[in-house]
Queue: 3 jobs
Job 1
Amino acid sequence: NAFEAETVARRMKPDTVKTGAMPETARGSAGMTENHNANFPNDLGKKFMEDDRYAIENGYYKTEENIQHLDNSIHTYETQKFIISQNGKDPLMGGIAMDITERKRLEDELKRQAHIDYLTDLPNRRHFMVQGEVELSRAIRYGTPLSLMMLDIDFFKNVNDTYGHQVGDTVLQVLSKICQDALRQVDIAGR
């Protein structure tokens, strides 16, 4: 992986971190291509050095880092650093860096699916009930009023039977949008 190659080049030439970006020679020696080129600002270089120190002191370090590439895309990397040998004065450190951007995107999507109704984009029943319990506990704890409103669409089955489920889905989507627009930021709607 190109990021791993760049990491190796940076570790072999730690002075390149101070500049905030890899010099062309280090990029070339790491076999980098323009498509895999990452921009490392000074603060990230300092963080890498701190991570290295932690790994040296503790024998192992694992972290996730968001790195902006030159094309302005943000990639998430999982980095593991470990000591291979400390026979001499300077420890020999190894590391693995993996681009986990897609995995993080999928995790976020799964979290969203676990909490949001796919049709209306409202919190699903489970998430709504959890949030409702939190708000009820807060109202009891602080002695503040709490309101709950339940909305039922009369004869909604007739809409589905007469016009089809696609029209019924559209009615639910429009109604949920109206509810969301009418509520304050702190209010919770759910399906």
Job 2
Amino acid sequence: GSIAYIVYLSTLFGFAAWSSLLSLYPVSTVAPFTLLVPVFGFLGSAVLLGEALQDWKLFASGLVIAGLALEEYDDILAERTRQLTSRHRVLVDQVSTLLPSWSLSPALGGVCVWADLGEPVSTRLSRQSARLGVRLVPGPRFGSPGTFERYVRLPFSAPEGELGEAIGLIHDAWQLSGDLGGVYPLQEAVI
């Protein structure tokens, strides 16, 4: 059994996969992933053989994975920047189209902007939005009670389609925010 494993799975499959990756990607991209061999080895022994996972091995695996992430940091950062820029554009376009009276702060870092609603109604808007399935953070959550009531925080971390849909629902909530029809408790979770 063990010789069959070494010959077929480890050698033939392993080298075929390695050769295939090297034909698709540069060596500098593929080679760092060889550092994962011991990680998969001890995880495999834990899953297949029931061996105990020792804390130091888990910690060491975390360091290896963090090192690989650092190796790919520039690529990860470029991709995340592209995603967030696209999502920010969707947010700005949707707000300027559907809620033209609102004024958005610039996105100077992070994944949200502040919307100045022009009037102190962010708590009421947040409650109405929650009724429609979108949970917003009203401004007073970020200061003393009663302050920042003109502002609501709008994150742009959701995928473009979800973001467009959420702004549409926020628009509907804005249109309905004067008619709450009773108390609606604001929950802790937000978008």
Job 3
Amino acid sequence: AIRVKGLQMADDVQEQRNAPPLTRMLERVQKVVGATLLVGTGATVLVLMLHVVFNALSRSFFNRPIEGTLEFVGNWYLPIIVLLGLAVAQQRRQHIEARLLFDRAPRSIQIEFQLFTYALLTVLSLVIAWYSYVEAWRNLGVGLTAGVSGVVIWPVTFAVPIGFLLFAVQLLIDAVLLIHSKGATLAEGAE
């Protein structure tokens, strides 16, 4: 069937209205958290670009680079961009997937594979979040810096547990939505 874009949007709105309250709430949480993370990550990319450009201009025109640029880029900006981007990439289905066996499996098994993958990744993410949380507190205690430069980096080590915790929450939301869609599919098939 050919659908006009406006009619497709109307169908999507109707589907959202017919969705159970839990599904609507989870989708709203996803939108808010995703938008917040996108703004935070985008702002970090902007600050990184400005820092690098000002460093290059300062080096070229004043023969004096901004001290600690490499440490800030490698130990502050990039970890924040990557770790906060984990949950956003999962939400937008932009992680790389190797679906060799998955695509050949029957649809019912695909759902179980996906749920198993979500469960495994959630557990792994929570383990990483816990370990990195303990490590971040240890880094706070010693006042971790970036070697000789003295750039303080212990605060950004808290991005690791936050990033993996948000990733785990996104995986749980995806699992709940998948279970709900499986139930809806089964209900439609029974009609």
